[in-house]
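pls design
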């Protein structure tokens, strides 16, 4: 049981925790005090980053004001990275040496970049995780003439299009889009892949099906060197941070926090985890921002129940399919919904409307009441 003096600690300012903050603003804080620990005052919505690269958005577009949302929700804000957790002692440690205690913890830090692990070390590599660091680092590479984008998922596809049309580079860079051995968009329909492939060809983006590696300061695609390359952008999916497993939370073989249908740790049920840092044990849910967004309200309800000393009762069930909208970097977008695909400027307008609607709801909540 959790009494009214309980302390809820939100670790990380991800998409699901945005929904938690919104819930507390609208309905009031649960019977508990709460703290959010995150290194950033703002969450950067990754969906607007390819558009920023292509000059369609300002750098500030896509920022959600976490500090104001926390203040509106009655939540203390600590600007720091979590680097250690002791789920038995119910404490965490920040990078700056501060220790925080909790009764209930919720982890939504997202995954970590894994470029060095999968490719090798090279000073030309910038990982898309964390996204804020990626945006900062990309701004220092405007002279790049030849860029390799590694990773054939939706994120890598949008970045390849965005970088080909980069508005803030000295010249339009040549792009080598390395999909990995699984090929282009392996989790999407053939209709979507066909439209994306045609658009890549039309824009002169070279597509290489195979794995990349770094050896002796050179980038190789399979066994062939592909130099010279000025910049390597890694969009290789989420890796797991080290500290959950090191702290004793049950994790899968890849280091992601193992959770039940209510997002509770299977080893420490007073710790919840959601998004790219977690993996459900009752069903397969791929790591995707769309799932973190939709799981957020469920997490908010479960935290409210647990703060009241009750068992959580809601479980996030993914839709049979989700709408994905990929910007081509030149005023159009490609839509994917199950087996269906569409392309055009109207799809780009739809993407802008959906993104803006999502961002606007948090901008409105962040304003003083």
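designed seq:
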């Amino acid at each position: 049981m959790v009494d009214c003096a309980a302390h809820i600690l939100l670790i990380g300012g991800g998409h699901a925790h945005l929904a938690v903050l919104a819930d507390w603003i609208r309905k009031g804080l649960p019977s508990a005090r709460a703290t959010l620990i995150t290194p950033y005052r703002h969450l950067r919505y990754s969906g607007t980053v390819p558009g920023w690269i292509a000059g369609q958005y300002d750098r500030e577009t896509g920022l959600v004001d976490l500090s104001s949302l926390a203040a509106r929700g009655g939540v203390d804000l600590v600007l720091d990275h979590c680097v250690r957790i002791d789920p038995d002692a119910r404490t965490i440690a920040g990078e700056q040496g501060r220790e925080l205690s909790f009764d209930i913890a919720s982890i939504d830090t997202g995954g970590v970049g894994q470029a060095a692990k999968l490719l090798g070390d090279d000073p030309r590599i910038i990982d898309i995780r964390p996204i804020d660091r990626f945006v900062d680092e990309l701004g220092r590479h405007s002279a790049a003439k030849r860029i390799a984008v590694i990773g054939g998922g939706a994120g890598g596809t949008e970045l390849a299009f965005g970088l080909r049309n980069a508005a803030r580079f000295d010249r339009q860079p040549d792009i080598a889009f390395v999909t990995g051995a699984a090929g282009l968009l392996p989790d999407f329909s053939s209709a979507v892949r066909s439209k994306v492939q045609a658009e890549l060809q039309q824009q002169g983006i070279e597509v290489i099906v195979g794995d990349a590696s770094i050896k002796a300061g050179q980038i190789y695609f399979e066994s062939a060197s592909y130099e010279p390359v000025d910049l390597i952008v890694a969009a290789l999916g989420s890796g797991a941070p080290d500290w959950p497993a090191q702290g004793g939370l049950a994790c899968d073989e890849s280091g992601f926090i193992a959770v039940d249908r209510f997002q509770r740790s299977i080893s420490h049920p007073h710790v919840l985890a959601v998004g790219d840092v977690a993996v459900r044990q009752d069903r397969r849910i791929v790591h995707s921002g769309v799932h973190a967004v939709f799981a957020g309200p469920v997490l908010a309800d479960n935290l409210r129940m647990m703060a009241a000393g009750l068992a959580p009762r809601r479980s996030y069930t993914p839709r049979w399919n989700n709408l994905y909208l990929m910007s081509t970097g030149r005023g159009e977008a490609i839509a994917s919904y199950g087996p269906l695909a569409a392309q055009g400027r109207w799809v780009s307008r739809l993407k802008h409307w959906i993104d803006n609607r999502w961002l606007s709801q948090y901008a409105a909540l962040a304003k003083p009441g």
